[in-house]
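assembly run, all chains below
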Amino acid sequence: MSAELFCLTYGAMVTEMLKDYEDPKDVTIQLDKMGFNMGTRLADDFLAKNANVPRCVDTRQIADVLCRTAIPCYLGVSATASSWTSGDREFTITLESNPLTELVQVPPHLVSAGLSYSQLIAGAIRGALEAVHFKVYASATESGANTEIRIRFDQVLKDSLPAGEDD
Amino acid sequence: MSAELFCLTYGAMVTEMLKDYEDPKDVTIQLDKMGFNMGTRLADDFLAKNANVPRCVDTRQIADVLCRTAIPCYLGVSATASSWTSGDREFTITLESNPLTELVQVPPHLVSAGLSYSQLIAGAIRGALEAVHFKVYASATESGANTEIRIRFDQVLKDSLPAGEDD
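ok done. output:
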């Protein structure tokens, strides 16, 4: 699958959404929701393909699986985790490059107005982690040439664990 | 770039458009326009990367470049041209598989109502060919597991040739 085709399709989609929603902030919310739904499906796909990935027990391990396996697998780029705060409950994932923004230039006035162009990726991470019972908040920001995704761990979703796995 | 991510992003986009437009036919028209705009950009990208592709002088050559080079390059699948009619002015491109529909099931009632789910690809072909001065009509249909794109050649756009290349 060509990265150019994906980048242009995504750009066309966001352009379309900016026409439909008056407020760029609403486009960000919508991209986040779309990403979330995709993330829950990608989690299934990921688990089916990576049976050897161990069950994560802390956020350092989650960050490691995201940066070393999941993001390279689906976005085709490498990523690093840094800026750990709040007792490892928050961290930043920096994408080495961002296939969504490769061929596009996001107008600064839309960014100022609240458009987070790459929020689909943050939403997908949130959805994928929620599928494996980690509730997090995730937001994407473009920082120069880099895209950063700030992840804040909220809670382990014990209620939705299958009966017998609860403790 | 993962085909799964592209497929799910595209599915989310079409779902979003179906909510915004009342008539699935209008979604098809919109996908065609989006594809057209992408196609004009992909044509530039393609020409920059494939300096050795000869200038096409007939539809058989156009079909050959599309099926052997452009479609494998951007969609990552092979394609064949067949069903030539009207003195080679019309032909059908059959995609070996379609990354847009890999993980989705398009509800039959939307297809009956005029949704051509893969019209983005047909629009992109139309846009790419128009960028190199061939005006065509292109429409996509799912035929069982295959996606077929019917291309009808209209005219060579002589007016938009650079001065000096006109004959």
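The longest helix of chain B spans residues 24-49.

The beta strands of chain B are 79-85, 90-95, 134-143, 146-156.

not gonna interpret more than that til we talk
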